[in-house]
Specification:
Blueprint lengths: L12 E10 L10 H7 L8 E3 L5 E5 L6 H21 L3 E3 L17 H10 L10 E7 L3 H11 L3 H8 L4 E2 L2 E2 L5 H6 L14 H13 L13 E3 L5 E8 L4 H24 L8 H14 L4 E3 L6 E3 H19 L2 H14 L2 H12 L5 H9 L2 H8 L1
Antiparallel strand pairs: 1-3, 1-4, 1-5, 2-3, 5-9, 6-7, 8-9, 10-11
Length: 379
């Protein structure tokens, strides 16, 4: 129930995850996406698609209002695709960027991808960057634009939670999310501008296209945007998570944040005033330091660590989490992060324990693949 006394059902949501394909012998990127997709049973392929490079695949869950159902969908899809990858001579890894050096995977031979590679030159070379996108249903476009304004200052916290790419080219980059650094070189990647209306959103997109900066609306890579083909707000700033449990936590936090934004819009609450320069600095800080990165508190304006602000965010969205039935899952997930660390911290701990970055690929695939789903598919 909202503050106005109106009973509102849980917001519908869905998740897209991008994965890296690895060679089981070398741990390097494996350009076998076509063989993997062809090995997936036909009735699952509607939830699977090619990504930009041939060492990547992407899954998309069916929309749902239930967090448990989302978790099952992610586990089933990961398990099915992981088993298909094994049958095609590859392994599925949920990691933001390839940890080991190796030959660049070819661009998938589809017209749009080839045009991207042609237009953007060296930006398109080499690294397979893998993220997670969360869609939350907000059918009214005017309302959705207002939601974008309200969520933008909190997004560095979600980026910190997702950081899962500390290694590249066989070495520690010094960043928790190297993917964020590499991805940030593409045009339009960054915080969503403050928007006046859907017409203002459309005008900005049109001017970016007319100016030759982007090819089409699909290249609007703002961290929060309106979906082109769905009645949703799309949050698209994080690394793909190592585990299903981490992905579900992020999805619940995103849905809670969008739900709180809807409540704030309904109450006429002002949009938090965080200068763009400080917001960009916050995203850079969490890309480097994860939850230890310092960000701007949208409420007080003070500098806080992202870990501290995560606690504040959970408190802020608790009424929405309770309304959605997600509160227990979020509290459990946040406690897990405090105990085990984010994906980047766990990768570094594994390298310290084994003494070599080359031990990462089998570790990453083990974290990615739900063992019972792989066993079911193989049977």
């Amino acid at each position: 129930m909202t503050g106005s006394g109106v009973v509102r059902p849980p917001l519908r949501l869905g998740v897209e995850e991008e994965f890296l394909l690895l060679d089981p012998d070398t741990g390097q990127s494996s350009p076998r996406s076509r063989a993997v997709i062809e090995a997936v049973p036909a009735d699952w392929r509607a939830h699977l698609q090619y990504e930009f490079l041939s060492a990547q695949v992407e899954i998309g869950t069916p929309p749902t209002r239930d967090l448990g159902e989302l978790e099952r969908s992610l586990a089933d899809l990961r398990g099915t695709v992981a088993a298909a990858a094994r049958s095609a001579g590859a392994r599925l890894a949920a990691v933001g960027a390839p940890p080991l050096p190796g030959p660049a995977a070819p661009v998938v031979a589809r017209p749009r991808y080839l045009e991207l590679a042609n237009r953007y030159g060296a930006l398109a070379d080499g690294t397979a960057l893998n993220g997670m996108h969360v869609h939350v249903e907000v059918a009214d476009r005017d309302l959705a634009v207002r939601v974008l304004n309200h969520v933008r200052p909190w997004l560095p916290v979600l980026a910190a939670v997702s950081a899962n790419s500390p290694y590249a080219d066989g070495r520690d980059t010094g960043f928790a999310s190297w993917r964020s650094v590499r991805w940030g070189t593409w045009p339009t990647v960054g915080p969503t501008p403050l928007l006046r209306s859907p017409a203002h959103y459309a005008e900005l997109v049109e001017r970016l296209i007319d100016g030759g900066v982007i090819m089409d609306e699909g290249m609007v890579y703002w961290f929060a945007r309106l979906s082109r083909h769905l009645p949703t707000v799309e949050i698209r700033l994080g690394d793909v998570h190592a585990t299903v449990a981490d992905a579900v936590l992020s999805a619940a936090l995103v849905r809670g944040l969008v739900g709180r934004a809807l409540d704030d819009v309904a109450a006429g609450a002002p949009v938090p005033a965080v200068p763009d320069a400080l917001l960009r600095a916050a995203h850079w800080a969490v890309a480097r330091d994860g939850l230890a990165g310092r960000v701007v508190d949208p409420v007080s304006g003070a500098q806080r660590t992202a870990g501290r602000l995560l606690r504040d965010l959970v408190t802020r969205i608790t009424p929405v989490l309770r309304r959605h039935g997600d509160l227990a899952a979020v509290r459990e997930g946040v406690q897990r992060l405090r105990t085990a660390g984010i994906g980047a911290a766990r990768q570094r701990a594994h390298v310290r324990a084994t003494g070599t970055v080359e031990a990462l690929p089998p570790y990453l695939t083990a974290m990615t693949e739900p063992a019972e789903a792989v066993a079911d598919f193989a049977a």
